[in-house]
Amino acid sequence: VSTGITVKIGDRITFSASGTWCYCACNAPECTVTANGNPNTANNPESLIVNAPLGLLIGRVGTAGSYFAI
Fold first, then answer.
1. Is the pLDDT of residue 1 over 80?
2. Is 33 exposed, middle or buried (0-12, 13-18, 19+ CB in 10 A)?
3. Segment 38-65 mean pLDDT
4. How many angstroms separate the CA atoms of 55 and 13, rounded?
5. Candidate ranges 14-18, 23-27, 46-50; pick with highest mean pLDDT
6. Rg of the chain over CA atoms, in angstroms?
7. What secondary structure letter does DSSP report for 49?
8. 6: alpha, beta or left, given left = phi > 0 and alpha = psi -120 to 50?
9. Residues near 42 by Cβ (< 8 Å), separated by ≥ 6?
10. pLDDT above 90 as % of the chain
11. Cα–Cα distance between 27 and 51 in angstroms, integer?
12. CB-based contacts of 44: which residues, under 8 Å, 6+ apart?
């Protein structure tokens, strides 16, 4: 999802996240995570970042940039 924010090389940006979300359809408590993701899933092959917890809040600059943890 594009934020519509233009970022140039050298710009500093900050992020702040709060709340929880559930990444499975069953709404099980073990699927409800914060922006830090589920610490019990750090090696999940479905994660877009290697060794990152499933559900971790991620970002990307542009359409070709690499994903990074926020």
1. no
2. buried
3. 80
4. 22
5. 14-18
6. 14
7. S
8. beta
9. 51, 52, 53
10. 4
11. 24
12. 53, 54
Which residues are within 8 A (CB) of 46 and not within 5 positions of it... i.e. 6 or more apart?
54
End-to-end CA distance of the chain: 15
Mean pLDDT of 55-69: 84
Q: Where are the beta strands (DSSP E) in the chain?
A: 21-22, 32-33, 58-59, 68-69
Taken as a whole, the chain contains a residue count of: 70
Which tokens in the block code for residue 23?
Answer: 């990444």
What is the torsion angle, in degrees rounded to the nearest 10, for the CA atoms of residue 40, residue 69, residue 49 and residue 46? 50
Would you state the pLDDT for residue 10? 92
